Amino acid sequence: MEEYITKAKTLIESLPYIQRFAGKTVVIKYGGSAMIDDDLKLSVIKDIVLMKLVGLKPIIVHGGGKEISYWMSKLNKQSQFIDGFRVTDEETMEIAEMILSGKVNKSLVQLMFQQGMKAVGISGKDGATIKVNKKYINGKDIGFVGDIKTVNTELLNVLLESDFIPIVAPIGLDDNGDSYNINADDAAGAIASAMNAEKLVFLTDVEGVLLDPYDQRSLISEISVDKAEELIQDGVIAGGMIPKIKCCINSVKNNVTQVHILDGRVDHSLLLEIFTEKGIGTMMVK
Ligand SMILES: Nc1ncnc2c1ncn2[C@@H]1O[C@H](COP(=O)(O)OP(=O)(O)OP(=O)(O)O)[C@@H](O)[C@H]1O
Ligand SMILES: [Mg+2]
Are the C-beta atoms of residues 285 and 222 closer than 8 Å to each other? Predict the structure, then answer.
């Protein structure tokens, strides 16, 4: 009996959070190795199912960098990165689209289905949701990598209104209709801003922003825009964390109320963040 009362109390404790977030859009960027382990994947999906059932409107934007690199090496192609962005020639673009829009996207839709949820997997191409310009890094051409120009929220709104969970692969079109690979963090950030999301959460394969990448105790739990910019300058924030932090900065500047970087390897980190007082990972503040 005691055990059941404790369970009921736990449920009641989440009531204020459920009330606060009901009807609100939450964008979840899902990436890193948290997306490779099947048990963890299921645990993340279940968290999102629960969020949806208590009235939040989740939108998932996924990456798949590790999976793309794996298939690139199987096809004897080298992966090359500049500032965390994948250099994308025509063949790499083809592989990226097959992995992202095909394999990764549909596996998430399938997991949702197995949990009794209606999800629709799209890429930024569908409904012309994401339009891009070619991205240059310090003037350097890195191929078919897109800088997001516009997000058209029409299709996403239709899906949300009809109670579907949208799952978005980070691919967009330029004005000529060519396909571009987009960093998934960029896509999540732009979608969160365009949808006026209440929360933007990055689920990744690290505890959050670390002052020393080799020491997990150096986690920064709250980071300001100025501090984040300083850490990028100093090279403390590097690689795949750069686009993530830049998106956090843009998002808090664009009225997304709360932006978090969480460890997707921790069971139920999403639920902990949304439905409890306990702050985990790194939160960005204005
Ligand atoms: N200061 C830092 N603190 C934490 N992680 C850092 C830092 N600097 C660089 N990183 C790296 O950033 C990585 C996270 O970005 P990464 O792009 O690899 O994953 P992701 O964005 O979650 O996945 P995907 O790119 O597949 O969507 C970490 O695994 C870590 O190696
Ligand atoms: Mg990344």
Answer: yes
